[in-house]
């Protein structure tokens, strides 16, 4: 379990001016309140809020959000009161901890509703401060990581709720890493047979194409360097869930998919993005109809990047995303990235603190208007359930096993 000083150090790495006294006080208070309580896994209950706080340090959130993460279950599960938290930590933190308690109770409603979209709207309405949603998403992510310790009859409901509500919500907030992991963990529970089959196929392909990702990274890096472009190349396999959705949308098997690999090219400025694109299209053939310029025309959640697909080594199709490091921060961390940086520098003055309303923070596209990109496609646990519709990832990052 992370120690007190280790948590403070994690925050200090990205915020040298963090309020260490607040973090230490919240750590000790939550640890004492949860006392001897245990998780379903048998671990001390305090390990959960601590892991939630750790997840949020990866998102580089502010001190208050870390404190709220540590305290988020105290009103619901201990003898702590709103008045006591107000007195010790201030009214703002007390209000936000109470807001999380309301969202926890809202989960009970979600078990009975069939309209996940209505619940998503309700979540946004109830959470008057975006920090409440950030902590709630991190709370759900840790619960999904430890889902195996829950009774089996609860796992399916929790996974469906995650896929229907929390993963799309993370996507709307621009937090793509969190969205992908939530989808991945839910997919493993909801459709274990498909997950295992795709994971096995990926393992076989990894053996067959051993070193391919490293070779492509090297070839691209050398091509950029030869033209005087400073760039970092990151290669990866696509997530099993992403592959599953592509198989559904194209109505093909794994063997017919040609773009299993994805690469990111990170540069320092916009001009370098387009220069890198030119280099890529010079050394490899581009695939017609697969170029998207989200720099000149950003997505509604503020995502910016160049997307292209090329035919790389061994006739292997490769998807590339080219963007600046600042764009990458927004792509990975969404709202959290915008909250702490001003003109590319850390803003310790609070001049860009979290807004009160997530709707004001940045536009969050939803499915309420039934855009043309909304789709339906089945995901089933033992072929027993069809999900509600949600928008495809191609526009608003709201995703479920839907056709793209």
TrEMBL record:
GO biological process: guanosine tetraphosphate metabolic process; response to starvation
Low complexity bias spans: 384-404
Naturally occurring in which organism (per UniProt): Methylobrevis pamukkalensis
Protein name, per record: GTP diphosphokinase
Boundaries of every HD domain copy: 45-144
Alphabetical list of PANTHER family matching this protein: BIFUNCTIONAL (P)PPGPP SYNTHASE_HYDROLASE SPOT (PTHR21262:SF36), GUANOSINE-3',5'-BIS DIPHOSPHATE 3'-PYROPHOSPHOHYDROLASE (PTHR21262)
One GO CC annotation: plasma membrane
Family: Belongs to the RelA/SpoT family.
């Amino acid at each position: 379990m992370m120690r007190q000083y280790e948590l403070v150090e994690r925050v200090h790495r990205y915020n040298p001016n963090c309020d260490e006294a607040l973090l230490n006080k919240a750590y000790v208070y939550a640890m004492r309140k949860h006392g001897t309580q245990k998780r379903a896994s048998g671990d001390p209950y305090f390990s959960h809020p601590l892991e939630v706080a750790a997840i949020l340090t990866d998102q580089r959130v502010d001190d208050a959000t870390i404190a709220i993460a540590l305290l988020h279950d105290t009103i619901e599960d201990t003898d702590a009161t709103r008045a006591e938290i107000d007195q010790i930590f201030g009214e703002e933190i007390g209000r936000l901890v109470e807001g999380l308690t309301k969202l926890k109770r809202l989960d009970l409603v979600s078990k009975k509703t069939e309209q996940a979209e209505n619940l998503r709207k309700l979540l946004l309405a109830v959470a008057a401060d975006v920090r409440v949603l950030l902590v709630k998403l991190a709370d759900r992510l840790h619960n999904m990581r430890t889902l195996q310790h829950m009774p089996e009859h609860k796992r399916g409901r929790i996974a469906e709720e995650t896929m229907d509500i929390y993963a799309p919500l993370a996507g709307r907030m621009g937090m793509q890493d969190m969205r992908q992991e939530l989808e991945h963990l839910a997919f493993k529970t909801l459709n274990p047979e498909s997950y295992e089959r795709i994971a096995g196929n990926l393992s076989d392909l990894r053996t067959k194409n051993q070193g391919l990702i490293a070779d492509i990274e090297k070839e691209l890096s050398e091509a950029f360097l030869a033209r005087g472009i400073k760039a970092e190349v990151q290669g990866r396999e696509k997530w099993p869930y992403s592959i599953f959705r592509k198989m559904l949308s194209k109505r093909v098997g794994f063997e017919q998919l040609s773009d299993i690999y994805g690469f990111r090219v990170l540069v320092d400025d916009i001009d370098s993005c387009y220069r890198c694109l030119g280099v890529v299209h010079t050394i490899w053939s581009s695939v017609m109809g697969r170029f998207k310029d989200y720099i000149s025309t950003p997505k509604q959640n503020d995502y910016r990047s160049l997307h292209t697909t090329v035919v790389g080594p061994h006739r292997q199709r490769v998807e590339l995303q080219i963007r600046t490091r600042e764009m990458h921060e927004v792509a990975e961390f969404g709202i959290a990235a915008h909250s702490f940086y001003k003109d590319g520098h850390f803003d310790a003055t609070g001049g860009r603190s979290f807004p009160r309303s997530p709707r004001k923070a940045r536009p969050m596209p939803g499915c309420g208007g039934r855009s043309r990109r909304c789709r339906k496609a089945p995901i089933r646990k033992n072929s027993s359930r069809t999900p509600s519709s949600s928008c495809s990832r191609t526009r608003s990052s709201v995703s479920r096993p839907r056709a793209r």
